[in-house]
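Lab manual, section 2.4: Encoding a predicted structure.

Procedure: take the sequence of the chain (288 residues), apply the prediction step described in section 2.3, and record the output as structure tokens. A sample record is shown.
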Amino acid sequence: MEDRFLGKQVDYPQQYAPEMLVAVPRHFNREQYELSEDQLPFVGFDIWHAYELSFLTKKGLPVTGLLKIVYKATNKSIVESKSLKLYLNSFNMHRFGDTAEQGLQQVLSTIEKDLNQLLETVIQLGFFKQGDDVQGFDFGEYTILENTAGIDSIEFEQFNETPALLIPSNQSGELKVASHLLRSNCKITNQPDWGSVYIYMNGKQLPDTSSLLKYLVSIRNENHFHEEICEMTYKRLWDAFLPDELAVSCIYTRRGGIDICPVRVSHEHLLPKHLTTSSVLSEKLLRQ
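Recorded output:
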């Protein structure tokens, strides 16, 4: 079902069309990394920003804004991205409510009902109009790996995911690093997906940062969905270094009017609070 719409020419629906939504089971990808559905080494969320939500009031007035969707990573499925795009576009010419506010409440209630049913979980929604305040930034004080001294002397030779590149340093304690070089490919269409990755680790053995950057670069030719890339990276770091605490957040570039930002953490207190709160519009990052 994950290739029902991806890579295919599909006409946009002209009226509300919940039948466009497609769920993709998470377990297919998790099995290859020995991630058991009933004993996951993380908690987390998938956060979606849909920049093109729009509908008409009963008098034909267009209403538009940014829709933020947040749901837990522990449910059984993700929503396939193009199916969500087609579904949200099906609201564009449909009429809801006598006023903009009334119509918005109807639209949000409808989306919440449809996604709850599709994903068999409880989703959270936020809606933001032009001029709404950005309220926070979760990723201060992270060292950007590709900006560190001596980066030009490092040889990068692996461009398919290579966990053997991860080697330990003689450092322990906390590590807060990031890279804007994250690049992978859509599992179905092979189109490139660009992003940033933010990694927090606390433990007795930390990775050598050059080796960590080499590993992140080696993801460049991998074909996975965004959520799968985040979980793969988390699991590789978890297995290699057995940290006390670990958090991986992947902030992907908007494509087709939607960006996807998966977050996986070992402990709930590590969740980026602004990003994972549906009622808050957090500061955009470089790759968004």
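Check your result against the sample. Strands lie at 23-25, 43-56, 62-72, 77-79, 124-128, 143-144, 173-185, 192-203, 245-252, 258-265.
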